[in-house]
Amino acid sequence: MGEQPIFSTRAHVFQIDPNTKKNWVPTSKHAVTVSYFFDSTRNVYRIISLDGSKAIINSTITPNMTFTKTSQKFGQWADSRANTVYGLGFSSESHLVKFAEKFAEFKEAARLAKEKSQEKMELTSTPSQGGTVKRNVLSVNKPVIKKESAPGDLQSPLTSESINGTDNDRVTPDTPQHPEARAEPSQNALPFSHSSSSINKHWEAELAALKGNNAKLTAALLESTANVKQWKQQLAAYQEEAERLHKRVTELECVSGQTTGIKSQKTELNRTIEELELALKAKEEELERLKAEVESANEFRSQRDSLIQRLQETEVRNQTLEAQLTDLEQRLESSQLEREAFRKSLRSLLELLDSKIFELNELRDALAKLLEGS
């Protein structure tokens, strides 16, 4: 698209009440962006403001418009095409002053663009008129030469094939012009007959120049025709935009008739919005609490996982210790059995030793008795 934003600000948008033409009707619930746009294809400036996807301002700046500051923070202008008056409420006086300066600047630019367009239209219409005047002057100033040169050589090029003139602009051989000049060839026929070749060359050069001028005029005519087509297309676009704006005005008039119901609905909606905001705030607090609980649950889960891992490691160590304990019990039991067998063998050995000691004691006693008896 050739339309680009060149300045933007924020303001509350109002329109004049179409019924009373006195009261202001707000078209936006809050401050919205108001922008100046420049359309390079049509060379126009527009003020556009959108509330969501809805266009609440679509005003084309014309040289006849005037932006009026009615207070320190409020300004207005009338749009005859939209058949309404727009009002803007700014947050500060500096924003209002800046917007008014831009309005005056773009209004002057629109005036200059309009003047240039008018000058261009005048220039495109001037060449065709100049070509007609030039052909009339040539037809008036050259009758003598045409009579003195060969008619077949000089009169045949000066027709509709070479010069875009009308039947009234062409000079025919039978047309009586400058009778006092017609008497001169009869007296000076001999000198002109000697210089007819040079005259032919001269007028052939003039004819070539006329053909070149004719080509230029034809190109200018084609360019003006193209410009006319472009202007027709722009006019059709303007008409379509005007119809769309009229429909929009009709819709706004229908909407303005329902202002009372809309105000009550707006109050109810504001209450509902406040209730929903409170509920939303409570839900947000609950959500924060749940998030904290989830975080603590995650911490407990990580602690549980670490405890489970430690428990598994403890169970593995316990199983290892149990295996070692079983082995030790088996070894202890075998050692006890060996010890019991050793005790039994020791007892038997002691008994055998006691019996041997007893026998030795008896033998000693017997030897003692023998010694005593001898």
Total strands: 8
- Return the average pLDDT rounded to an integer: 77
Determine the strand fraction and express it as a percent band. Answer: 5-15%
Find the structural class using helix and strand composition: alpha+beta
Biggest sheet details: 8 strands, antiparallel
Radius of gyration: 60 Å
Distance between the termini: 160 Å
Uncertain regions: pLDDT < 50 for 5+ in a row? 128-194
Total count of helical runs of at least 4 residues: 8
Apparent shape: elongated
* Helix/strand order, N-terminal first: EEEEEEEEHHHHHHHH
The helical percent reads 55-70%
List the helices and strands and how they pair.
Layout: E1 3-16, E2 24-26, E3 32-39, E4 44-51, E5 54-60, E6 68-69, E7 74-79, E8 84-89, H1 93-141, H2 143-148, H3 151-154, H4 179-182, H5 184-187, H6 189-194, H7 196-256, H8 259-373
Antiparallel strand pairs: 1-2, 1-3, 1-8, 3-4, 4-5, 6-7, 7-8
Helix pairs in contact: 1-7
Structural notes for this entry:
The chain has 374 residues and is an alpha+beta fold. It has helices at 93-141, 143-148, 151-154, 179-182, 184-187, 189-194, 196-256, 259-373, and strands spanning 3-16, 24-26, 32-39, 44-51, 54-60, 68-69, 74-79, 84-89. Helix 1 (93-141) packs antiparallel against helix 7. The longest helix is centred in the last third of the chain and has 115 residues, at 259-373. It is elongated. Residues 156-166, 185-196 have a biased composition (Polar residues). GO terms for molecular function: G protein-coupled glutamate receptor binding.
